[in-house]
UniProtKB/TrEMBL annotation:
Superkingdom, taxonomy of origin: Bacteria
Pfam families: DUF3502, SBP_bac_1
Polar residues compositional bias, start-end: 37-51
Segments forming a coiled coil: none
Keyword terms: Signal
InterPro entries the record matches: Bact_solute-bd_prot1, DUF3502, SBP
Designated name of the protein: Extracellular solute-binding protein
Chain residue ranges for the region called Disordered: 28-54
Residues spanning the signal sequence: 1-19
Ranges where the DUF3502 domain occurs: 478-545
Length: 550
């Protein structure tokens, strides 16, 4: 029954996002302004608050995110303090780390109780494990609560329900579209110089990379960063209800170990769980064509084959083609305009980039039902249970989501300096945009408040509009399943570091004997309790199915 309620809530959330996101596509959306009149500009409303409310004592909150700190962050924070001093009277200190360091420091801070008030976490990081260990505060009481009107307006009850874990909300869920489409950003100017037409297939992409390598030997054909090849070459279970794939670590839904889980044809019984390095016998009961190890994890061989095109420092945090010596780069559709602006500011307007969506061929051709999702927010922030400022932190988020002006300040920077409005729901860049390139997916994304960048090439804009329409997504099997890692916390603590270390190498194709490395890793994981984890996965999935989950 609980699982059915979850699915129903998730479906209602789809309708909410369709309505909210449609407001980002033109000037007809009101983003919460139901009067039908134009919304006030950011400069008119930033920091507005209840004049009768008592000003609280000053507080400094510590936020921990990953990536690069925007150059003008201090300027934006000063503006924030100026406009909010008579309402929430709050200062914020940001700590930024690389993605890998962020994962490790999260675990360290939680285990030692070091002071931190807000952290980024997500299902593809440590979220479910940390919830099981009691690290994060329950936030249910702050939502759908008239004392927090900003949160109540920006997060409908159905959305909150859809993002609960074991009956409680532990996150502030962040989403604009459910998936920021994965792309290879291609240097359009180089492609045209080489006399090649627009790239529409992986085969044509490789021809382009070969041409760059041959005719521009001082260039890096494909620049990768900390994500490696990410999900390039991975298989898809689109149209299937009898299997959920976890072909890479970031797709794990079982405690950080990427178990792919097979179900009976009617979806009522779990028939197997297998992971990287397992023998083919573990996959024998899986539905075809996923009934061998390499049918799911063989994409690592393709990474080896393509490693001749990549940079030597592919494990470094930076990604993209923001270089005059890069032929292409891996990233997301949401980063195209940002990377183009950086590229042109640094090296001239003659340089340009264009997207090649590699999510799937159907997604590349913008067909309905082609983008993978579980209809949960893919990103979120959490508040450690050890924080001594939980109420004040939630008052900050209430302020942040209480108006478009407040939200714009953090997501886009100072209006007129870092961006200019383009209608009610869009914005255009300025010469100073690159000085404040905040990571909205880490703190601010919201379908009713986030603006769409109008400075896009036609192809990128079409893909952005495509990703905003929920009919273009398909729901994966076991989408409501949340793994409780507490029963196998000891085993996961031994296994996860071993897996992470090896995947760092495999995801960029550095190891030619990748299968032997994966099998060696698998043996180490078995010696550390992998079979205990596998049994717990099978047990919990079956309990979920028995309760009506799908």
């Amino acid at each position: 029954m609980k699982a059915k309620m979850f699915i129903a809530a998730a479906l209602v959330m789809v309708l909410f996002l369709m309505a909210a996101c449609s407001g980002n596509n033109g000037s007809t959306g009101t983003n919460g302004n139901t009067s039908g009149k134009p919304s006030p500009s950011s400069s008119e409303t930033a920091g507005t608050s209840n004049p009768d409310a008592a000003v609280p004592d000053p507080v400094t909150l510590k936020f921990m995110l990953f990536g690069d700190k925007p150059a003008d962050m201090d300027k934006v924070l000063a503006k924030f303090e100026e406009v909010s001093k008579d309402s929430i009277n709050t200062k914020i200190e940001f700590e930024y780390n690389t993605p890998q360091d962020h994962r490790q420091k999260m675990q360290l801070k939680m285990s030692t109780g070091e002071a931190v008030d807000v952290m980024f976490d997500a299902g593809w990081m440590n979220l479910y494990n940390h919830v099981s260990l009691g690290y994060y505060a329950e936030l249910d009481k702050y939502f759908n609560n008239d004392e927090y009107p900003g949160l109540k307006a920006a997060f409908p009850a159905e959305f909150v329900e859809a993002n609960k874990i074991n009956g409680h909300l532990y996150t502030i869920p962040l989403t604009y579209y459910y998936t920021d489409l994965n792309v290879i950003s291609i240097r359009k100017d180089i492609r045209e110089e080489l006399g090649l037409g627009p790239i529409t297939t992986l085969e044509e992409l490789e021809v382009y990379l070969q041409q760059v390598q041959e005719k521009k030997p001082d260039y890096t054909p494909l620049a990768l960063g900390g994500r490696g090849f990410h999900k390039l070459f991975t298989p898809s279970e689109n149209g299937r209800t009898d299997i959920r794939l976890a072909a890479v670590g970031s797709d794990s839904f079982t405690g950080g170990i990427p178990f792919s889980v097979a179900l009976s044809e009617d979806g009522k019984k779990v028939i197997g769980a297998a992971t990287l390095g397992d023998p083919d016998s573990e996959f024998a009961s899986f539905p075809a064509p996923f009934n061998t190890h390499d049918s799911i994890y063989g994409h690592f061989q393709k990474r080896v084959d393509w490693s001749k095109y990549i940079n030597k420092d592919a494990l470094a945090p930076a990604t993209g083609v923001v270089s005059d010596k890069g032929g292409a780069g891996e990233g997301t559709i949401g980063g195209i305009s940002r990377d183009r602006q950086k590229l042109q500011e640094a090296y001239g307007t003659g340089l340009d980039i264009e997207p090649f969506v590699y999510e799937s061929e159907d997604a590349r051709n913008m067909k309905p039902g082609a983008i993978r999702t579980d209809f949960r927010a893919n990103n979120s922030v959490v508040i450690p249970a050890s924080s001594k400022n939980i109420d004040r932190t939630m008052k900050f988020f209430d302020w942040l989501f209480s108006s478009k002006a407040n939200h714009d300040l953090f997501e886009l920077g100072i209006e007129g300096e870092h961006w200019v409005a383009d209608g009610d729901n869009g914005y255009k860049t300025t010469a100073n945009t690159t000085k404040y390139q905040f990571q909205p997916y880490e703190l601010t994304w919201n379908p009713s408040l986030s603006r769409l960048n109008s400075d896009q090439d036609p192809a990128t804009m079409n893909y952005l509009q495509y990703a905003l329409d929920n009919k273009n997504y398909f729901q994966i099997a076991l989408s409501g399943f949340i793994f409780d890692s507490k029963p196998v916390a000891t085993e996961l603590a031994k296994i996860k570091p071993k897996f992470d270390e090896v995947e760092q190498i495999l995801k960029v194709g550095y190891e030619k004997n990748w299968l032997e490395m994966a099998q060696s890793l698998n043996k180490q994981m078995r010696d550390s309790g992998l079979e205990t984890v596998r049994a717990e996965v099978l047990k919990q999935v079956q309990a979920y199915l028995d309760a009506g989950g799908k």
